[in-house]
Design a protein that fits this description.
heterodimer; A: alpha/beta; Rossmann fold; 7-stranded mixed β-sheet; 12 helices; B: mainly alpha; globular
């Protein structure tokens, strides 16, 4: 009797254990483990890919602080997809894009991600450093490759990141080298750096500190938050410090405030900004006349660039999106698509269009060319920025998009020697 | 030294606008003993109308409409509070928070993706004097503030409304027994506070003052004036002016000599310090209890 009771209890425990194991299996990320099914053309597929379509996602910003830039990046992604589809698609499949808008809010992005993730193979655009930070583990857990519209080298420890172009630290190193080459700053000068607290600002600051150490510059740092709008008191202080240039890793509105104060206070020093610091909408603001001192360092050419591919994409954009803001986001969006195209083509050749197959394809590419929309990209060394080259553009109200290219794609020697935070070797 | 003087100029210019806003809080508190948390939304009402009308009727016309509308919005709010006559002052203050949220969200929704600047005639036109930069927006705000505050003080001291209001602030029941119509005094106070908010916003949504156009940020600035009113003394009009200037100077000087991050909390720290030493604020009436 006792024995029977013990056996009954053992059976109960065994049953409970079995149930627990079954439930645990259901709750695990088994769906995301290597595997998948074989689809059309004998290509292995899992999420976001059918026999006729490849679905990519956009988590963008069309309502937040980078809304104008975000809208143009979305348009660039879409124009690329249309071009690809018109040419027959990739792997005999049409590209489909699913878009969500997080308004540059990480908490909103966290809510939207689970709705988007099951539908897509990867993300052709994931905008915003705070958003990326919030979703870092999700991307890893889901094996989801994403092209960030965010260029911090700090995120390169995430194997799921498909960095498109140069990182913020390198933009600043190249930009300062340009200012020095033009005689606008010299060895031993003091420069100011106003930066947003967080991954974006911190990464830009790394660049100015590195360059300053190499060239005996003194950097006066001013940390702000993304919601600060009036930088007059900071620039007043920088004037007192005798700065010869100001570096900005800020939002466009904050750039306008710094530039307006730079002029109003009679400082009038050159101002170098990372690629997100300028928005042509500023040319309609009261600060319009003070923007002329701004130099922007970016991986992609400005809207008005004469680079043939840039001209072609800009023409399509103006035709399809008449009246939409003209900014460099267009080329950023298009080139994100071009890199995805290279990766998907490689994955298709390898017969594996699963998420894992995409990651393998990415790291196997050591030379992705984009018709100079960004410099040649090398993804074979994870942790290392895929390129170090930038364009330098200067504010010019007469130019479409408000920026004129003043230096073509180049890489400064100091940028070549810079070791990024997660770079191995 | 040059930096210090420039920072003082920056701080005083901003302080003038904070003083206008703080005066709005004080006028209402004196008349009704209600803390008006909806002051930021009165600011947005005025600013929104300037933004919506300046292209069609010119900046001056739009500014007048904006000021009058903000004043009338204050009056409407007063009528709403009068409807809740049985609520105590704390309850009414909470009611103003609710009203504030509703108005602010609606105006922010209407403004949409734009962040319009509304200081067209004077914004981003600095004046250089002896190596100092005087921001035109702040200097005009200083003059307008001085004129309005002086006019307010004179009216407060010599007009029958001012006498009535002071009497009501002193002793509401005794004032009523002396034939002072409380509702009229209160309504006028809300009108004046609304008009002051309508004037202040003309300087707030500018590149010079805030570096940002009309929006949620403008509303947030209006709340920075709250410490100005409290540290000056919530029932002191002179205190509102001094409090505004203290807030402006604290912001500017702490940003340079401590850190920009600290400057945002410095204002509240100064307010706390003042309240610890003088619980009624710098110029507020000390509460006495006879036993």
């Amino acid at each position: 009797m006792i024995l029977r009771r013990k056996a009954g209890r053992s059976a109960l425990i065994a049953g409970a254990l079995a149930s627990t194991l079954v439930l645990a299996a259901c709750g695990s990320t088994a769906d995301n483990q290597p595997g998948g099914t074989t689809g059309a053309g004998g290509v292995k597929t899992d999420k976001g890919v059918t026999d006729s379509t490849i679905t990519l996602g956009i988590m963008g910003d069309t309502t937040g602080v980078f809304k104008n830039l975000g809208a143009a990046i979305n348009a660039g992604n879409s124009i690329w997809a249309e071009d690809v589809n018109a040419a027959g698609g990739i792997c005999n499949r049409q590209i489909k894009i699913e878009i969500v808008d997080h308004g540059y809010k990480a908490d909103t992005a966290k809510t939207l991600y689970p709705q988007l993730e099951p539908k897509v193979l990867g993300m052709v655009q994931l905008l915003g450093s705070p958003v990326l930070a919030a979703l870092k583990q999700n991307l890893i857990d889901d094996n989801l490759t994403a092209a960030p519209a965010s260029w911090s080298s700090e995120i390169l420890n995430n194997p799921n990141i498909m960095m498109i172009g140069t990182t913020y630290d390198l933009e600043i190193i190249d930009g300062l080298a340009y200012l020095q080459q033009e005689g606008l700053i010299k060895e031993g000068d003091t420069i100011g750096h106003i930066y947003i607290d967080g991954e974006y600002g911190g990464n830009g600051l790394k660049g100015s500190k590195f360059y300053a150490e190499k060239h005996g510059l003194t950097v006066k740092e001013s940390k702000i938050t993304s919601t600060d709008s009036d930088l007059t008191n900071i620039v007043t202080g920088l004037r007192g410090d005798g700065v010869k240039a100001i570096v900005l890793t800020t939002t466009p509105g904050q750039s306008a405030s710094a530039l307006a104060a730079n002029q109003a206070l009679g400082l009038n020093v050159p101002v170098l900004g990372n690629n997100p610091t300028f928005d042509p909408a500023l040319l309609q603001s009261p600060a319009a006349n003070a923007l002329g001192n701004l130099y922007v360092a970016a991986s992609s050419p400005p809207f008005s660039s004469k680079t043939p591919k840039a001209v072609e994409v800009a023409a399509k954009y103006k035709q399809k999106y008449a009246g939409a803001p003209l900014n460099a986001g267009l080329h950023v969006g298009y080139v994100e698509g071009l890199v995805w195209q290279a990766v998907l083509t490689k994955a298709c050749e390898s017969g594996d269009l699963t998420r894992v197959g995409v990651q393998k394809a990415l790291t196997s590419l050591s030379s992705v060319k984009t018709d100079d929309l960004v410099a040649e990209l090398d993804y074979s060394s994870p942790g290392t920025p895929p390129t170090r080259g930038v364009y330098i553009a200067k504010v010019d109200p007469a130019a479409e998009g408000g920026l004129t290219e003043v230096a073509p794609l180049f890489t400064a020697p100091d940028a070549e020697g810079y070791k990024a935070p997660h770079q191995k070797g | 030294m040059e930096t210090f003087v420039q920072l003082v100029v920056n701080g005083l210019g901003k302080g003038a606008v904070y003083a206008l806003l703080a005066l709005g809080f004080v006028v209402i508190f004196k008349a009704t003993e209600v803390v008006n948390f909806a002051h930021g939304s009165l600011v947005l009402v005025g600013g929104y109308l300037v933004y919506a009308l300046k292209d069609s009727m010119g900046w001056i016309g739009a500014a007048v409409v904006g000021i009058v509308s903000a004043a009338l919005a204050g009056l409407v709010l007063e009528r709403l509070l009068a409807g809740a006559r049985n609520a105590d002052h704390n309850g009414l203050a909470l009611l103003t928070i609710g009203v504030d949220v509703i108005i602010t969200e609606e105006i922010v929704r209407r403004i949409g993706a734009d962040i319009p600047f509304i200081g067209d005639p004077y914004d981003s036109q600095p004046i250089q004097i002896a190596g100092l930069t005087i921001f035109r927006t702040q200097s005009i705000a200083l003059v307008v503030g001085a004129v309005l505050i002086t006019a307010f003080f004179l009216a407060f001291r010599f007009s029958s409304w001012g006498v009535a209001m002071r009497a009501q602030a002193e002793n509401r029941e005794a004032a009523a027994l002396m034939g002072i119509r409380s509702s009229r005094v209160t309504a006028t106070a809300w009108l004046v506070a609304g008009a002051l908010a309508g004037v202040a916003v003309l300087f707030m949504a500018t590149q010079d003052f805030s570096g940002a156009g009309l929006g949620r940020g403008t509303h947030a600035i209006a709340l920075i004036a709250f410490p100005a009113a409290i540290l000056g003394g919530l029932d002191s009009t002179a205190g509102a002016v001094v409090g505004g200037l203290v807030v402006g100077l604290t912001e500017a000087l702490s940003a340079q000599y401590i850190s920009f991050e600290f400057s945002k909390s410095a204002v509240f720290l100064v307010m706390l310090l003042v309240l610890v030493i003088r619980p009624s604020g710098l110029f507020g009436t000390k509460e006495l209890s006879r036993v």
